[in-house]
Amino acid sequence: MNDYIMAFLVGGIICVIAQILMDKTKLTPGRILVVFVTSGVILGALKIYDPLIKYGKAGASIPLPGFGYNLAKSVMKEVDEKGFLGAFTGGIKGTAAGISAAILFGYLMALIFNPKSKT
C-alpha cells in the first residue's frame, strides 16, 4: 500500500509542477515536454533521479522525466558496452518498449473512438 501512496505523491508532484508551468508561464506544452525530458536526463546524470525512482516507483518512472532518465541511462550503458556507437543505439534499445506501446495504444484508441479536431 505504501508503494501506491509514494507513486501517487511523486507522480502528483511532477504533474503539479507541469500545471504550474502551464498556468504561470508562457511556455507551450511542447516546450514543457522538452523541459521535463531534459530534466530527467540531467537529474539522472547527477544521480538525483535514482532515489526518486527508488521511493516513487511508477510515479517517477512513467512521467516524462522518467522517460528522459531511462533514455540517458540506456545510452550510458550502451556506450560502456559498445563504445561510441552505443550513443546512437542505446536510446533506441532502452525506450523501444515504451514508444511502441504509445504508438500501439494510440492507434487502438483511434480505431475504437471517433477522433475529432477542435474547430
Automatic annotation (TrEMBL):
NCBIfam families in the record: spore_V_AE
Entry annotated with the keyword Membrane: yes
Bilayer-crossing regions: 6-22, 29-49, 94-113
Matches recorded under InterPro entries: Spore_V_AE, SpoVA
Pfam family, one: SpoVAC_SpoVAEB
Listed name of the protein: Stage V sporulation protein AE
Superkingdom of origin organism: Bacteria
Keywords attached to this entry: Membrane, Transmembrane, Transmembrane helix
UniProt KW Transmembrane keyword: yes
Organism field: Clostridium bovifaecis
